[in-house]
Every structure is written in C-alpha cells, then in structure tokens.
Amino acid sequence: MNTRHCKLIGVPVQDGAGRLGCEMGPSALRTAGLAQALTGLGHRVTDLGTLAPPPPLAVSHANAAIKNLAQVAAWVQAAAEIAYTASEDGMCIFMGGDHSMSAGTVAGLARRAAAQGRPLFVLWLDAHTDFHSLQTTASGNLHGVPVAYLTGQPGFAPGFPIPHAPVPLEQVAMLGVRSVDEAERRMIAGTGLTVFDMRAIDEHGVKALLSSFLNRVSAANGLLHVSLDVDFLDPAIAPAVGTTVPGGATFREAHLVMEMLHDSGLVSSLDLAELNPFLDERGRTATLLVDLVASLMGRRVMDRPTWSFQ
After folding, report:
1. What is the pLDDT of residues 227-280, one digit of tens each?
2. Dist CA 228 CA 29 (whole Å)
C-alpha cells in the first residue's frame, strides 16, 4: 500500500448551516481517532490545527434572505488560502464545519491543480446538490451554495471572492442526491453536471456509477477531491447532521464507495462536512466517518475493528 502524508485541517464554520454545532466537528473527529486510524495504516499525519474564525468581510448582497454572508465569505477566503498552501505537498483532509467550507477548500485546491497543470475533479457525496447561488437561495443558508460557486456559476457578486480557477461542470459528479428544489433543477438542467441520485444507485448500484466517473478522472490524469457530507449517509446510521434526509447510503454502500476510491489511487484531498456532534448519539457518526476515511486510505474488510456502543 502506498503511504501518504495526510494533513488534518479543522475548518469549524457553522455560519452557513441552519443549526449550530458544526463548529465542534473537528474536535469530534480528533476524539474519534482520525489521526490514530491513519497512522495505524502506515500513513504520516500532520495535524495543522483548527482555523480561527476570520474577521467578517465587508460584503453585501441584494438577496435579503441570506444569513451570515460576511462571516461565510471570510471563511471561504480563509479556507481557500489554507487549501492552496497546504496542498503543495501531501493530502489535505479538511474537517468541518458545515458544507459552505467546501466553497473555499475546493477553490484553493483548484488553484493548486491549475498551478500543477492538472485538472481537478470533484466527487460530491451529498443528499443535496448545493447548487444555489447567492441570488437564488431562498433559505439563506449558505451551505447550499458551494457547488455553484466552485464551478463559476453567476450570482455570487458582490459577496464571495472570485475563484481563481473554477472547476468545469463536466469535472463534477454527485452521488447519493435525494433532495433538490425547483430552482436548483432549473440551474442544473442542460449543464454537464453528473448527478447520480439514489434511484440511480438503486437501479445500477454504486460500482457501475462510480466506475464511470473514476475512469474519466484517470483518462484525464486528473486530481480527485472528495467532498463527503454526513447527510450522504442514511440518518439511521449517521444521525449527527442538521439536514437529515431519509433513504441515504447504507453502511456497505458507503464503504464500497471508499474502497473503490482507495483502489483507484486517484484521491488527492478530502472534505468531511456537516458533522454536528450536538446531534450525535455517543459519537457514533464521528466514529463512522473515521471508519470510512480508513477505508478510503486502505483499510480492508478483514482488518476492520468491531465497534461497540453498548
């Protein structure tokens, strides 16, 4: 197994979500043993700590529904900067934090990929498409905008910083989607965005869908960023998220995704988003996320420990 230099980076933004608690996500993942799981697999781990809340930016937008724009825009800027600098060498694992952090992490990683002359692909594991802009969001919760932002869609000015290197829509695939509103449907229609919803998983299985995307990444000699939202998983196995949607990925489907990603050798960075420990049950969601990351990083079925919540 190829060993990696894994860089853990806490991005405790919670201003983009509708419920408080995501700021505790990085601490929960550390407590659940993320670093120990990685070192146990032979990887080198450097914990770069947790970003301090940046000063709010002096920005505004005409959409009165938007919540905490100044704070989230500052987090996006800070996350983009640390993602760009830390990704020069090693594999960055960003511990969130709500999913608005990925507007920044992916923007920074795309800038790094452009500097290296390689395309960045994004696998978005989420119940939602997160394809609103600042202009279209009705809820005002900015964890619903990162994919539109990182792919360079209109509707973010003034407000968010302009991304250095937007990711082409054809280089993004979503898996596990099961909650899309009408505005997002209209925005996605006719684009090159690949959306594998839960019906597609039911009909074709994870293997066929994910393999087709990984083959595209490999053919392009691309870098692959994986952005994992807790609500990708079924809430029966991962309750610690403020946006639960029934019918998500099962334990085995999620592990198969991670095992296939490991086998591909393509993953260059990872987001762990929307973990809200305040909503968890004795740490079971944080423990599951650590187990999934271990599968991504090389743990085999026969090596998996048995967890007890008794």
Report:
1. 999 999 999 999 999 999 999 999 999 999 999 999 999 999 999 999 999 999
2. 14
Domain architecture of the chain: domains with CATH? 5-303 (3.40.800.10)
The pair of structure tokens assigned to 142 is 């900015």
Q: How far is CA 61 from CA 66, 68, 83, 158, in A?
A: 8, 11, 26, 6
* Identity of the residue numbered 12: P
At residue 47, the pLDDT reads 98
Question: Which tokens hold the place of 298?
Answer: 């090389």
- The counts of H helices and E strands in the chain are 9, 8
Residue of 61, 69, 59 lying closest to 143 (CA atoms): 69
269 contact partners, CB below 8 Å, separation of at least 6:
83, 87, 91, 92, 93, 94, 105, 109, 223, 225, 226
> How many Cα atoms sit within 13 Å of 9 on the Cβ side?
28
Instruction: Check residue 176 and give its pLDDT.
Output: 98
CA 305 to chain centre: 25
Specify whether the CB–CB gap between 118 and 218 falls below 8 A: no
Tokens 């973010």 correspond to 156
pLDDT at 302 over 60: no
pTM metric for this prediction = 0.96
If residue 96 lies in a helix (H) or strand (E), which one and from where to where?
strand 91-96
Which positions are catalytic? 99, 126, 128, 130, 143, 229, 231, 274
- Interval 118-137: pLDDT, tens: 999 999 999 999 999 999 99
pLDDT at 20 over 50: yes
Give me the amino acid identity at 105.
Answer: T
Amino acid at 282: R
